[in-house]
């Protein structure tokens, strides 16, 4: 693409938390950007509705929008969606997006994966992109993300299409965090913040959504050939570059909620459940849920997730993309809880008005 040709962006999954932040960054710097998603939450950019597992849907959106660069962020929620949906969106959908890019002559494709694709339940301390895929993925979500990654990398160089993969870790932020913040608030609201699983010595990466969006935009800008260091055909871990003990982060959110809801809870020294006991309790919870035909709320995976070190080396992203996290972790936590406060105050005013 010549310097005179203006990039046209299509953000797949642009109504979600990350997708929306990418859209806003591109829009705010004057780029032409459209969204392809199932649900329309904003009307400030062109929107195309459809299921990406249907190739004609993606192809139609690409041709109508005139997109030259696709940023694919769409994926079901990792802990709540059924396995069949992971295969449909992460595998079939990604293959359909790739096929549509090749058919329409799109030159750039950036795919949002997950740092969890290499996680097997063992500690990951400062790993980089050379760390291999597991022989047996942790769950169906990770298995389908691996399939998608391999397809995206395999497509690099076909019909002049250049591809890159972003692997963020622990995305959170505002506005629009309907996953992490809701879960942490529900624990807080039910008075269950006094339990800690594990010794809290495991460092964990969390990444503010603005920083993850920055990485996608940087990758799109630098996805050209030749480039040194290369971006095309590469995978990049993205984090806040400041790993915290797992429970320090969750307690930090709950402490900030105390300022919003004074007197809601009495903060106490946590009751610590050893990891091994937690895994047994998770297995029992899963069994009971299976017998009752319900979805378990406490699982072995949740225990492993909260007790295992998971932090990553992001030097590759710094060198190749010029990535630097511009929102620090504590500042991001402040922003998230401030946004939550605004949402709750808005609900209260609405209820009073009716």
TrEMBL record:
Pfam assignment, any one: 3Beta_HSD
GO molecular function, one term: oxidoreductase activity, acting on the CH-OH group of donors, NAD or NADP as acceptor
GO biological process, one term: steroid biosynthetic process
Domain (3-beta hydroxysteroid dehydrogenase/isomerase) ranges: 10-260
Source organism (scientific name): Crucibulum laeve
InterPro entries to which the protein is assigned, alphabetical: 3Beta_OHSteriod_DH/Estase, Lipid_A_modif_metabolic_enz, NAD(P)-bd_dom_sf
Name of the protein described by the UniProt record: 3-beta hydroxysteroid dehydrogenase/isomerase domain-containing protein
Family per record: Belongs to the 3-beta-HSD family.
Membrane-spanning intervals of the chain: 272-292
UniProt entry keywords in alphabetical sequence: Membrane, Oxidoreductase, Transmembrane, Transmembrane helix
């Amino acid at each position: 693409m010549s310097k005179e040709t203006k990039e046209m962006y299509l953000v797949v999954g642009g109504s979600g938390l990350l997708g929306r932040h990418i859209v806003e960054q591109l829009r705010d710097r004057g780029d032409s950007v459209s969204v392809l998603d199932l649900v329309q939450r904003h009307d400030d950019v062109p929107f195309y509705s459809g299921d990406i597992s249907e190739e004609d849907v993606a192809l139609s959106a690409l041709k109508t929008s005139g997109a030259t660069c696709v940023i694919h962020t769409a994926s079901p929620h990792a802990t709540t969606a059924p396995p069949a949906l992971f295969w449909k969106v992460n595998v079939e959908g990604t293959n359909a997006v790739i096929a549509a890019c090749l058919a329409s002559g799109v030159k750039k494709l950036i795919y949002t994966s997950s740092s969890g694709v290499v996680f097997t339940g063992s500690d990951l301390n400062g790993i980089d992109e050379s760390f291999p895929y597991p022989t047996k993925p942790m769950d169906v979500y990770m298995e389908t993300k691996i399939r998608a990654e391999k397809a995206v990398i395999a497509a690099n160089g076909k019909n002049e299409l250049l591809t890159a993969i972003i692997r963020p870790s622990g995305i959170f932020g505002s506005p629009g965090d309907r996953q992490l913040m809701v879960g942490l608030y529900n624990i807080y609201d039910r008075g269950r913040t006094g339990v800690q699983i594990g010794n809290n010595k495991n460092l964990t990466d969390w990444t503010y959504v603005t920083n993850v969006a920055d990485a996608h935009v940087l990758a799109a800008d630098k996805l050209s050939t030749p480039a040194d260091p290369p971006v095309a055909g590469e995978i990049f871990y993205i984090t806040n570059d400041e790993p915290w003990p797992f429970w320090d982060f969750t307690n930090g959110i709950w402490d900030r909620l105390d300022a919003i809801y004074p007197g809601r809870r009495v903060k106490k020294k946590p009751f610590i459940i050893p990891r091994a006991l937690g895994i047994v309790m998770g297995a029992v919870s899963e069994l009971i849920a299976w017998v009752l035909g319900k979805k378990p709320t406490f699982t072995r995976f949740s225990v492993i997730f909260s007790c295992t070190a998971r932090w990553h080396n992001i030097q590759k992203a710094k060198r190749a993309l010029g990535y630097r996290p511009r929102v620090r972790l504590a500042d991001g936590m402040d922003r998230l809880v401030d946004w939550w406060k605004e949402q709750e105050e808005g609900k209260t005013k609405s209820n009073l008005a009716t």
